[in-house]
Every structure is written in structure tokens, then in C-alpha cells.
Protein: T-cell-specific guanine nucleotide triphosphate-binding protein 1-like
Organism: Lingula anatina
Amino acid sequence: MAEKSQEESEYKYVGAEELEEFETYYEEKGFEQFAEFMANKIKEVENVPVKIAVTGISGTGKSAFVNTFRGLNADNEGAAKVGSLETTMVPTEYRHPNNKNVTLWDLPGVGTSKFNKDNYEEKVNFDSYDFFLIFTRGRIFEDDIWLAKRAQLRGKNYFIVRTHIDVDMKGDKSTHPHTHDANKLLKEIRDGTKRLLEEVGVYPKDGVYLISTLLKHVHKDLWDYRKLENDMLHKLPREKREVLTLSLNNLSKNLIKEKCEILRSRLKQKAMLLALKGFVPSGLKDFMPQEVLDFIDNEMTSYRQALGLDDGTLRRLSQRTGIELESLISETTEIIEMPTLRITGDVVMMLMACAIDPVLIVHPAISFFSKLGVGFGVAYESAYRLLHDILGRLETASLRVIEKMPSTQHTESLKATLSSTPYGVLYDRTQGGDDEA
């Protein structure tokens, strides 16, 4: 018999305000439209768009960032072309591979005949973006300043991103092999960029972000990349913040836990929809509608994508680290106790036997549930615990995959050592920055 955790109880019960909304809608519209209403409420939460504008002249690492942010390298399908000095002529959209609602837009420069200062904001649909990332490799150009000022004027958040820090490190180390001081160099770059931006009135209160856009450096938590991600999240309203959080690929133990917290907060609506679709809480697998099995299968797929356990992410992880793909996949299949990651009636029954306490706890919404049909409350409780159990198993699998990473122990100790610095991890002397972005 499974025990209900305090965490499970906190999320499971429908709140009074939400319950009143459900009851009112059901009494006015009836059962079928109420089921459609619940499905739409879930879509509204999950399909919130997040649009990120990426700007800067050619050679500042925009394309590499667009790929890295989406967990891709230049050879992957859908990757932005890296290394080209061609100027972006039209706004170019790049969708996140695991969430089509998260898009990065490479915007053309301001100083072209087609996109000049008189028509730029209208032509790029300026107000549609949630925030702007302005990339620079060293010099701050007039067009960058103009764009930052327009963002200020229109109340848009913007981030100044100084790239190619790995190249700066390599150059300074080569020039000063005996006196090279990484943190001193970072301070000089940060202070110099700050001074330039203050002179023209566009220095953001969150400062500038010193990063390398190379995927290998990002996964080592070098410099300000994770701080940039965190600050981007905190500039968004809750619904958009949750969507973007679930899409982040630079996984850490804390990020996995944060993602699972978001997913757990959505389980009650998912469980209610499953019960409305005909979820069978007993062991009668032959009576479980295929629509219910498909819904559970899609849920598990979305959990795997959010937690970095989907086939594509694991394959790229294997290629990057040299760890056998089968070894990474086995972490998921062993914990979920499934030879293949597909939901069938047999699999649901097996998981239910592990997850479900046959004694129904009295639910605050039990009177409303009784209106939805005999046994609806039991179906809801069972569906909730099933989804809760699947998510918990996948959370454990994701944490185990992170433990397999060669740099996990090093990264965790490095974070602890440098956690008191104002910008988090500044520079890892033991792993250096010897590759150019």
C-alpha cells in the first residue's frame, strides 16, 4: 500500500475558488462541455508562448547561443547555422525542440535599408517579444545602444550579453602565462563594459552577463550563463516563467526539483480530466479507454522531455559525454519498471498497484465529484496517484542521470566554493576555457 506524502497532499486538493468555478460551469453547461472546459484549462497553461529576441552584429555568438539554449549543437537538425558572417535579413524563428511555444528570434540589424530606425519596431513586431538579448563581443555599437533605449522606452526588459569569454581567457593566458589571473580579467571586462553602458545611459540594473556560448562550457557552469537563465526567468510572469523553466536544457539537481514542482502543481487538473475521460481505478485493464492510455502516455512523454530523459536529449548527452546511450536509457526503464517507455493497460495496472492506496481519503470536493458520477472521486484519487508516481519515478531517474555525468562532483564542489561571489561561478581554473566560441 502506497503512503501519501505531505507533498502529494499539498497539491492534490482542489481549492475553494477553483472548485466554485468548476461547479458553476458544470451546472450551466453539463458533463460533456465540462470535460472540454477542463481540457482547455490545461491547454491554456501549457500553451503560453514565450518569445525571446536575440540581437547583435554577426560574429557575436548569437547562433551558437540559440543552439545551446535549445540543447543543440551545430550539427543537430533544426540548429542555427554557426560560423557564418552573413547578416540576418529577416526575423528568423527557432523553436525549442521540446516545446514549440518557446521560440528564439534572430532579429536583423537596425542599420539596413529595409530595417531602419523609422520602421524597425513595426517590422520586427517589437512589442511581441518578452525580452531582448543584446549580444556584444567587445565594442558597444550605436545600433545596440539605440535598441536598448527603445526597449527602455517601451518598458521591455533587455539583457546585455558579453560573449567569447573563453576566447578572452585563452588569449590572456597565452599572453601572460605566468601572471594570468582569470577573475581579475573577468572584473576588468565587466567593469569596462559597465563603464561604456553607463556613459550612454543603458546600463541595466542586473548588470552585464559574461558567457561563452559553447555547449561544453555551459554544462560546466562556467561564468554567467546560469545567472542569465535565472534572471530571464525572473523577468517573466508566473505562467511564462513556468513554461520557460520546463524548457531549460542546462539541467542541475535544483532545476530538476523546480521542474517537478511545477509539474506536480498541474496534476489535479490532469487527474480530473483523466477521470472525466473514463479512467478505471480497478484492475480491469480491458475497460480502460484507449483515450485514457494515450493521455497517460503523452503525459509521461512530456515529463521525460522536461527532465531530459527523452530519446533525443539522451542521445546528445551520450555523444557529448561518451557515456553509453543504453546506460542512460536504462536509468529510466529500470526506475519506471518498464522494458519500453510506452503506456499500455498492463503497464498502468502495474504502476497502479504500486501507487494507489485502495482506501479513498475524503476529498474536500467529494460532494462535487458525486455529481460527476458514481466512483468519480475514486477515479480522480487513483489517477492523481498514478501520475504522481510516474513523475516521482522519472524525477529519480533524471537525478541518477546527472550523477552519471563526469563533471557532476566537480561542478557541485565548485558551486559550493564560489557560491558567495556576486555572479556565482566565475571561472574554473582546473578546466579552463581553451576553446573558441
In short: Residues 6-46+254-406 form one domain. The two ends are 54 Å apart (CA to CA).
